[in-house]
Amino acid sequence: MDDLENLIQMNENTGHYNIKPGTLENKKYDFIIVGSGSAGSVIANRLSEIPNWNILLLETGEEATPLTDIPGLAPFFLFTQYNWGYLMEKQDNFCLGLTDQRMHWPRGRALGGTTIINYMIHVRGNKHDYDRWASFGNPGWSYEDVLPYFLKSEDASVRINDPPYRHKGGYLSVGDVPFRSQSVHVFVRAAQELGYKYVDYNGKEQLGVSYVQATIRRGLRCSAEKAFLMPVRNRTNLTILTKARVTKVLIDPQTKEAYGVEYVRNKKRHIVNASKEVILSAGAFNSPQLLMLSGIGPEDHLRELGIPILKALPVGQKMYDHLTFLGLVFTVNESIVVQQEEVLKDSNNYLQLIKKGAGAFTTIGGVEALAYLKTNVANYTENYPDMEFMFIGGGLQTDKGVAYSRMFRIDETIYNRIWKPLENAYAWSVLPMLLHPKSYGYLKLKSKNPFHWPLFYGNFFTDPNNEDVKTFIAAIREVQRISKTPAFQRYNSQQVKTPIPGCENQIFDSDEYWECALRYISATLHHQVSTCKMGPSDDPEAVVDNKLRVYGIRNLRVADTSIIPLTLSAHTNVPTYMVGEKASDLIKEEWMQYNTNNFLYK
């Protein structure tokens, strides 16, 4: 209840969150941060710890309504002004079962960025992920290097945990999701029957099964805005300006030095200067867009659009993403799953949320447990996963087609064939997530007009050896094994075998059938990375160095998901908080005598 009251009060009394237009031009700022998502909010918080530095944080969106803090309403906010509303471009032989064969690529457009509309799943990733970053020429980014930053951020209240890997007292609340259906306990038991260990997947070991952990506080969303901005909103050296659309980084063409940004607010163009640095934290889509609009990007592409070239770099040329498959649905013979209609009708659920931060409205998109596995087709020797399973005590049918199927743009014909008959049945689902795809896409500008969306090309399932499809099929077989365990067979768990329209000519459950199904009803989980890749100077794909400085341009950094150089065994939200924490120390080290050991969690 305190959180709801605080949020309402914050919307009424916004402190530094809204500044009158025209008041910034005559003020001197040391640092300008573009974007208030996971990384940008952290950087604004940490840099403003230095009292003699003036910090400006610019955000295109506005403050979110307190309703966005109710986890159970998350799907609905994808259809509001808090989402940029991006769509992937059409791809041959993919998205065949989605509306117009195009996929939603949601990104947050609000104070707090995508943490306002995401599903709050808290996963750091695997030790091997970060050790690979370092081994590819990025010193300072090994697991040993970055773990202190994960710990520094978090205020953990996870019941089953590995104590050396958890911390209390940080800004970001991390905890168990209060609501659990009976079916999630069945899933956890079933996985254990197959040999999966119960683990704290953010602890010493990741391979295994666990109830999901989330960035929630007393049952409500703990966004970047709530965690990192609200506590410091009254710092006199921090200015936070919403509804400010940055259109260009200002760079001296002779010295190649960034000195400010151009932004539009209330249909007026403004310029504001930075004496030390401009920091782009606008995300995997908008940071590369701004770089290219400012003359930093692929030479041929910029020349084609008539943008003067300041530095030729492979901006946007590589983009990894995490894909999931939507078609693994199983029925059971008892009401152990979630029925959305019953949730909405039960007034006790509202009371539990308000009074205790508990009840069915604390569910995070229906995800209740995670399992990590290394499939039998993995081609590496290290002991880390290539697949994540997200268990859902329901499915796209849970809300009778109101939001979940629309969220994934499932074609109405396919929804009516597969999920509509299940609307009054008891069904559970698993969303398998491919952690380390071999396929990758790219983005480019549509034009030099900063208000035009970039063009997004996923290129899913295009790896020459078809390894991504094979890994998915191996994962499907494993989910089928879980359904057949004694734990699930107690409830007569049966896979839904209705053929997906378009795949009827394939024999159901053959590899050929599953490949067809994958090409019809797969969708992104919104974890795009690498569009401003971090790497050494001899890496032809690198845009920034290991200190996140843009190559060839002084006083310009990128710090967000776009710098992540390789795929992660994680959802990208929490790793991006880590990037923000580390970037803050890198900036402090460069601009003052600063000992990072004074700030790191011990």
Task: Describe the protein.
The chain is α/β, with parallel strands linked by helices. It has a domain at 162-220 and 321-524: Glucose Oxidase, domain 3 (2-Layer Sandwich). Helices cover 26% and strands 18% of the residues. It contains 16 helices and 24 strands. It has helices at 2-12, 38-47, 127-135, 143-153, 182-193, 224-229, 283-293, 299-305, 340-345, 347-356, 404-407, 412-418, 467-483, 486-489, 511-520, 573-591; strands at residues 29-34, 55-58, 154-157, 172-176, 208-211, 213-214, 216-217, 220-221, 238-241, 245-252, 257-265, 268-280, 296-297, 311-312, 323-325, 329-332, 367-373, 387-392, 426-434, 442-444, 455-457, 494-495, 522-524, 556-558. The strands form six sheets. Strands 5, 15, 16, 17, 18, 19, 22 and 23 form an eight-stranded antiparallel sheet that branches. Strands 1, 2, 9, 10, 11, 12 and 24 form a seven-stranded mixed sheet that branches. A hairpin with a 2-residue loop joins strand 11 and strand 12 (268-280). Helix 4 packs across helix 16 (573-591) and helix 13 packs across helix 15. The longest helix is centred in the C-terminal third of the chain and has 19 residues, at 573-591. It starts with a helix and ends in an 11-residue tail after the last helix. Mean pLDDT is 93; it is low at 1-16 and 598-602.
